[in-house]
Amino acid sequence: MGILFEVLSTNQKLSNGSIPPNIVSKDPKGLKITEKPHPLPAEVLDVGSGLMLKLPDENDAVELFRKIDSNRDYLRKWLPWLDDVITVEDELEAIRSRPSLMDSCMYAILLDGKIVGTAGINSFDWENRMFSIGYWLSEDLTGQGIVTKCCSRLIDHCFEDLGHHRACILVAVENFPSRAVPSRLGMSLEGISKDREWLYDHYVDAAVYAITKPDWRPIGD
Ligand SMILES: CC(C)(COP(=O)(O)OP(=O)(O)OC[C@H]1O[C@@H](n2cnc3c(N)ncnc32)[C@H](O)[C@@H]1OP(=O)(O)O)[C@@H](O)C(=O)NCCC(=O)NCCS
To answer: What's the 181 CA to ligand 1 centre distance in angstroms?
Structure first.
């Protein structure tokens, strides 16, 4: 019988004041055999092909805002937050008040050093070792596999470095370019979640895709 894992809280605080859960390994008789703090997501991930994933800081606010603003109509069709980012100051505030890396982490996608979109973890469920992914890409750079490669790197990081077990992507059922991303990654369609997301003035159903670590094969360059 394998080692069982459970998540316990500790008194150790992160610099942002939150408390990371610990990984505690137990043998089948329940004896504690190791204890170590949970690793946090990396600040930067090299994807290859000139692509990097980087946690944005305040210096990235203007570039990120311009990319969002120049794709506003295109992104607004499927993403619910466009009306929250009307000015550079809104973007700056979003970066400043980003949640703890224990809860989520949204990376800027850099192509040859320039911001072209974002990809990241919308939410971590550490107790169940599960996470869900979100992304968008500048319209002029679609059709090159950029988001698929970035998601592959992200999933690999979460499985291999952070100890997660299950990756999910939820996509509006009629967002076919986005549904192709989890399919390309080898994820399975598990079902349709009814009225899963509110998009400005209506609900949309979501297709739920997932893959577990034993089935995972990263996408090569
Ligand atoms: C969803 C979205 C990111 C998909 O963009 P995309 O460019 O189609 O996805 P990728 O970057 O993975 O590229 C895949 C395309 O590149 C092609 N491609 C070229 N080289 C490739 C490679 N090495 N690997 C994978 N795909 C490759 C694929 O064939 C595919 O093109 P196709 O659709 O014509 O077959 C984009 O449409 C978007 O930002 N939409 C608006 C926001 C949104 O909907 N976000 C998701 C909400 S759930």
So the answer is: 6
**What 3-state class would DSSP assign to 192?**
strand
Contact present, 171 and 207 (Cβ < 8 Å): yes
Closest atom of ligand 1 relative to the 138 alpha carbon: 39
What pTM value is reported for the model?
0.88
Residue range 7-62, pLDDT digits in tens = 333 333 444 444 445 555 555 555 554 555 679 999 999 999 999 999 999 999 99
For the chain, give every domain's residue range: 23-215
* CA angle centred on 189, ends 186 and 191, rounded to 5°: 165
| Annotation: CATH topology of 23-215 | Aminopeptidase (3.40.630)
29 CA distance to ligand 1 middle (Å): 48
